[in-house]
Recover the amino acids of this structure.
C-alpha cells in the first residue's frame, strides 16, 4: 500500500470509486516526510491522545498513530470509509469517527476516547472551516497543544504582532489563549490535488493563564472585534 505517491493515492482512490470534493477542502498530503514532520512538530509522545480533524486517506493518521498513544480522527466524508478501512483499519490505537467536527461534542469525545491521557490536536485542516474549528478547539479547553496545517497567510496572521498590517481580532484571540509558532511551510506541490496556495504548520501551545488579566473576556473580545472593524473603515 502506497499512501504517499501520486500514483499510489490515485490507485487506492480509484479502486474505491472515490471522487475528491473541493467543497470539503480535500487536498490530501502526498509526502511521507511532511506527515512525519507534522507529527514531530506536535511534540507528541505515548502519553498523548491526539484528535485529528479530517483523516482523508489516513496519511497523517498513520504518522500520528506511531507518535501518540491513541488517535481519534473525525472525518465528515463517509465515502472514505472503505479507503480508511484499508489504510488504517488494522491499527488498534486509531479510531475513525464519521461526523462533522463543527457539530461534534468535542469535550465528550475526548473524555471518552482519551481517558487518562494528555490531549492534543494535530490536523491538516480543511481550510474552509479554519476559524470556527480553531475557536471551537480552544474554547472547549481540553487540549494542551494544537498543531495544524493551514493556509500560509492565515498562519502568519495568527502569529502577527501588534502594529503589523495582518494583526487582527483573530490574532488577539489566538494569542490570548495560546502561544502560536510557525513550524515550517509546505509547498502546494506536496498535495493531491494541489491547492492554489502554500500552507504552513503552526503549533499553538495553550496557555495555563492568559497573558493579561481581563474582568470579562466576553466584553474584551467584543471591544477587540469592534476596534478592528473600525480600523477597516479608516
Ligand atoms: N488528513 C488528510 C491529509 O493530510 O491528507 C486530509 C486533509 S484534507 C486537507 C481535509 C479533510 O477534512 C478531508 O478529508 C475532508 O473530507 C475533511 N473534512 C472537511 N470538512 C470536515 C468537517 N466539517 N468535519 C470533519 N472533517 C472534515
Amino acid at each position: 500500500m502506497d499512501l504517499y505517491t501520486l500514483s499510489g493515492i490515485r490507485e487506492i482512490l480509484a479502486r474505491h470509486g472515490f471522487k475528491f470534493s473541493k467543497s470539503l477542502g480535500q487536498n490530501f498530503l502526498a509526502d511521507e516526510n511532511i506527515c512525519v514532520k507534522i507529527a514531530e512538530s506536535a511534540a507528541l509522545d505515548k502519553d498523548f491522545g491526539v484528535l485529528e480533524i479530517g483523516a482523508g486517506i489516513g496519511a497523517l493518521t498513520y504518522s500520528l498513530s506511531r507518535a501518540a498513544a491513541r488517535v481519534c480522527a473525525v472525518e465528515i466524508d463517509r465515502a472514505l470509509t472503505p479507503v480508511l478501512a484499508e489504510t488504517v483499519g488494522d491499527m488498534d490505537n486509531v479510531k475513525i469517527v464519521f461526523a462533522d467536527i463543527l457539530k461534534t461534542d468535542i469535550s465528550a469525545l475526548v473524555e471518552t476516547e482519551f481517558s487518562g491521557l494528555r490531549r492534543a490536536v494535530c490536523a491538516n485542516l480543511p481550510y474552509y472551516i479554519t476559524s470556527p474549528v480553531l475557536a471551537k478547539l480552544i474554547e472547549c479547553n481540553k487540549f494542551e497543544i494544537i498543531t495544524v496545517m493551514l493556509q500560509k497567510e492565515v498562519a502568519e496572521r495568527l502569529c502577527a504582532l501588534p502594529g503589523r498590517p495582518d494583526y487582527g481580532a483573530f490574532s488577539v484571540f489566538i494569542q490570548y489563549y495560546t502561544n502560536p509558532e510557525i513550524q515550517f511551510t509546505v509547498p502546494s506541490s506536496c498535495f493531491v490535488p494541489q491547492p492554489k496556495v502554500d500552507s504552513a504548520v503552526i503549533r499553538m501551545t495553550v496557555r495555563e493563564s492568559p497573558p493579561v488579566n481581563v474582568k470579562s473576556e466576553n466584553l474584551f473580545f467584543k471591544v477587540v472585534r469592534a476596534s478592528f472593524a473600525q480600523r477597516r473603515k479608516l
Notes: The chain has nine helices and nine strands.
